[in-house]
């Protein structure tokens, strides 16, 4: 299977805005996914969704018509757990956001009273209010490590575009004068985990996403072909100001099987 002059032997797919919106399948997405499956193409989902565990995400996708196994879903929360076990094995971790503890195996989660030495941000939810953010800011000023599951600025729901954790991460970084460690997209390490799961080198893999920065440009930066879909949170103005062109831009995932000659 080819994408221009490149041979594509495996796919990394974003979920929100590519396959579903608010857990409802996008028109034609399930059929397109089935065509990719029928061609024997290995697939992994690379998602910054943190409000559901990996197992729950996979189960929800199967209900929506996408045949996918739990271990074919790679989440930013699972990546965060792996990073924390390696970099802060005894760390007292305060979690701010919507991540599910089921994906944080081996991570020692604590409350404010336990003097956390790691501040971990996941997807933004109602807990991102002044008191919690200010306490996180003070802990970070005091030397706590700063880890975030992703830098996603927004995501699309059935109610419209919503602000996500990335906006808060950037604000805290400016306030404390140092950058957070990122475990999900656009981290190169997250894409490396996807390649490892596929068992393929970057030059033989394509990434399909609706986020020009977090999905496409980040994938291209590590040698993966980037395919941008005009669904989800796609905005023409974001593409125009990106400064880097995707390998392909398509209306939706419906066009991806044909793009690969399937």
Summarize this structure briefly:
With 262 residues, the protein is an alpha/beta fold.
What features would you describe in this structure?
There is one protein chain. With 262 residues, this protein is an alpha/beta fold. It folds into two domains: 2-48 and 188-259, Rossmann fold (3-Layer(aba) Sandwich), CATH 3.40.50; 79-182, Rossmann fold. The chain is 33% helix and 21% strand. It is built from nine helices and 16 strands. The chain has helices spanning 29-38, 54-63, 76-87, 130-141, 165-176, 188-198, 212-221, 236-240, 256-259; strands at 2-3, 6-7, 10-13, 20-21, 24-25, 43-47, 73-75, 93-96, 118-121, 145-148, 154-157, 160-163, 181-182, 205-209, 225-229, 248-250. A six-stranded parallel sheet has the order 7-6-3-14-15-16. It is globular.
Which features does this protein show?
Rossmann fold; 262 residues; four-stranded parallel β-sheet; 33% helix; globular; six-stranded parallel β-sheet; alpha/beta
Strand order of the largest sheet: 7-6-3-14-15-16
Please indicate the percent range of residues in DSSP E strands (runs of 2 or more).
Answer: 15-25%
How many runs of DSSP E, i.e. beta strands? 16
| Overall CATH class of the largest domain | Alpha Beta
Structural class: alpha/beta
Please give the alpha-carbon distance between the first and last residues.
7 Å
| Rg measurement, Å | 18 Å
CATH-assigned homologous superfamily of the largest domain: HAD superfamily/HAD-like
Shape: globular
Unreliable sequence segments: none
> What would CATH call the architecture of the largest domain?
3-Layer(aba) Sandwich
Q: Domains counted in the coordinates: how many? A: 2
């Amino acid at each position: 299977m080819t994408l221009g002059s490149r041979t594509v032997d495996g796919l990394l797919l974003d979920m929100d805005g590519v396959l579903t919106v608010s857990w409802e399948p996008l028109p034609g997405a399930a059929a397109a996914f089935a065509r990719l499956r029928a061609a024997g193409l290995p697939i992994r989902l690379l998602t910054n969704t943190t409000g559901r565990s990996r197992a729950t995400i996979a189960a929800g996708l199967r209900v929506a018509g996408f045949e996918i196994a739990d271990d074919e879903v790679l989440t930013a929360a699972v990546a965060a757990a792996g990073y924390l076990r390696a970099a802060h094995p005894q760390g007292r971790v305060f979690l701010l956001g919507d991540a599910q503890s089921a994906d944080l195996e081996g991570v020692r989660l604590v409350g404010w009273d336990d003097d956390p030495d790691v501040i971990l941000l996941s997807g933004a939810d109602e807990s991102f209010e002044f008191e919690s953010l200010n306490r996180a800011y003070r802990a970070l000023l005091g030397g706590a490590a700063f880890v975030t599951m992703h830098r996603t600025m927004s995501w699309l729901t059935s109610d419209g575009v919503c602000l996500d954790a990335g906006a808060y991460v950037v604000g805290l970084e400016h306030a404390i004068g140092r950058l957070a460690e990122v475990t999900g997209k656009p981290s190169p390490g997250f894409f490396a985990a996807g390649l490892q799961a596929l068992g393929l080198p970057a030059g033989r893999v394509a990434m399909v996403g609706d986020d020009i920065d977090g999905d496409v440009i980040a994938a291209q930066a590590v040698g993966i072909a980037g395919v941008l879909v005009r669904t989800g949170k796609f905005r023409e103005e974001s593409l125009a100001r990106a400064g880097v062109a995707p390998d392909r831009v398509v209306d939706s995932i419906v066009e991806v099987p044909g793009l690969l000659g399937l």
